[in-house]
Give the backbone structure.
Amino acid sequence: MEIPAQRIEGLKALATIKKALATGAATQDIVAEANKEIELHPSLDRTLGVRYRSLARDSVTIACEVTWEHTQPVGLANGGLFASLGETAGSMAGFLAVDNSMQVMGTTNTTEFLRPAFPGDVIISSARAIHLGRTSQLWRIEHTNEKTGKLLAITSLRTAVRPIG
């Protein structure tokens, strides 16, 4: 089965970011490159307005300002937003933690909601590794309100580690 061109471009972009991290490039330069890639390629991250704040081999932090498009009918952030942010942060962290011949994909995403977020709030989602195995990983992603610092939700993301192809 042939790999679609859009997927190849995405993998190239991720490899560029990973290479920059390995060579010790300035963190802000790497974050700027990641944010540029989001703008260039159609994706859920671009649709949601995700912005990377920090990237490392064992952690990733992203931000997303809640808009009315992210809400459920009563005006608070839809739970799917938190699950998506958890998947984005955990999957990027997972990809950065494996070598270039491997990819990661979410297999389980469980998100517990603690407090609501509303339009105008900025959600900060920080992924930290719990387990980095040869064939699977487990990530804990904490979603906090940037202004208040309060914990809004917690995502547990399990990823499978597989060869690219």
In short: Residues 5 and 133 are 29 Å apart (CA to CA). Helices lie at 5-22, 27-40, 44-48, 79-97.
